[in-house]
Amino acid sequence: MSDRSAITSDFYDLEALLDDDDRALLHRVRTFMAEQVEPVINEYWTRAEFPHHLIPAMAELGIAGTSIQGYGCRGRSPLLDGMIAMELSKGDPSISTFMGVHGGLAMGSIYLCGSEEQKERWLPAMARMELIGAFGLTEPEHGSDVARGLQTTCRRDGDSWVLDGEKKWIGNATFADLVIIWARDVDTERVLGFVVEQGTPGFTAVNLEDKIALRVVQNAHITLAGVRVPEENRLQEAHSFRETADVLRMTRAGVAWSAVGCSRGAYEHALRYALGRRQFGQPIVEFQLVQDLLVRMLGNITASAAMCARLSHLQGAGRMTDEQASLAKAFCTMRMRETVGWARELMGGNGILLENHVGRYVADAEAIYSYEGTREVNTLIVGRGVTGSSAIV
Asked: Where is the Acyl-CoA oxidase/dehydrogenase middle domain (predicted)?
């Protein structure tokens, strides 16, 4: 039972929902995380650095933009896409976040909002991870209220657009080749999207220091000072914040899956620890209170994973609503917070040592809990759906 291959958090065998090819791909992702990421990730987490040397191996997996049809992408189901996000997060939530930003938010913006020419120009290279993407929406003074308060501006100037403003918490932005920037047109008040290429004059991205969560993710504070972007780099099918919201809806399910993965990672490390740890002359897994904690964790994980699986089926059928995505994000991140805390509790003082991994999940869970819609905002979205009354101020 102490063998790594015998420890699983998929208690209801949700992997059986995948076909053989998709399951084989999921297992390749699992092997990659176990063999190449886990041995080095604590070191990078401590230094708050990203393991750039792993990008070629990630590219070989072919999982960037998994659910996108065409353009060098696999065109597989949202269920597989979500389970991959979960598997990445089980190994390390920062790696899952990196891929979610690149393959989800950035590639998704181009796929949903770009012209055919723009999709052909950028998506194949992004699928091969020859070009890395970032997504710039959140601002220093506007997070949850960014739909109404977006302050970054754009104005047309001949065949170009001029962008001015700031963005904050933008993952991958310090090294991304392409950064999606959302800005408000000073003439029409419409929210438009732009692909800003790294090195464009007036664009600067400074890494945020001293984070306590997702330390491997390189979050940037972006300054846009008269950044000139050609019309051909304006996302041609983005005409309002409605299109921005379409991208967020598509990726919010992935965040819920990532929360499940974070929970699974903490649980599996805690179970492995419990199998090998002895106190009072016996393995601690033989104590009732330890088994109680393990079962609580497993219950949270199983309920959350089942909710995500159903959400992915709805998404694949084109029936997923904002309220359904928001409920999954809010519920799964709440259960994640409980689960990683119980995993730490099971380990006692050893749970705060990075060598035992669980402390990293405890810290990283705090970021997953808040990004792409706080619990409070997602709760209000669901509340509006079930009552017909909006409580959002």
From this structure: 134-225
Chain length of the chain: 393
For helices 241-276 and 78-91, what crossing angle results, to 10°? Answer: 50
Residue with tokens 């990659």: 32
Task: Assign 252 a pLDDT band (cuts: 50, 70, 90).
Answer: confident
Asked if 260 and 333 touch (Cβ cutoff 8 Å), the reply is no
Mean pLDDT of 39-49: 97
Q: Nearest 5 degrees, angle CA 305-CA 307-CA 312? A: 90
- CA torsion sign, 338 to 359 to 169 to 239? negative
Work out the angle between the directed axes of helices 288-316 and 322-347 (0-180°, nearest 10).
Answer: 160
Domains along the chain?
8-127 (1.10.540.10), 133-239 (2.40.110.10), 242-387 (1.20.140.10)
pLDDT category of residue 1 using cuts at 50, 70 and 90: very low
CA separation, residue 169 to residues 43, 269, 336 (Å): 22, 29, 22
User: What pTM does this model have?
Assistant: 0.94
Give the span between the Cα atoms of 156 and 166, in whole angstroms.
Answer: 18
Q: Which two tokens stand for residue 194?
A: 């732009």
Is 264's pLDDT higher than 50? yes
* 210: three-class secondary structure by DSSP: coil
Query: Please, what is the Cα angle at 250 between 135 and 22, to 5 degrees?
Result: 105
What SS3 class is residue 212?
coil
DSSP state of 234: B
Q: Which residues, listed in sequence order, are joined to residue 197 by a DSSP beta bridge?
A: 178
Q: What is the pLDDT of residues 190-241, one digit of tens each?
A: 999 999 999 999 999 999 999 999 999 999 999 999 999 999 999 999 999 9
Alpha helices by DSSP H, 33-77: 38-47, 55-61
> 79, exposed or middle or buried, with CB in 10 Å at 0-12, 13-18, 19+?
buried
Beta-ladder partners of 39:
none
Q: CA-to-CA distance for 25 and 61, rounded, in angstroms?
A: 8
The enclosing H or E element of 377 equals helix 375-387
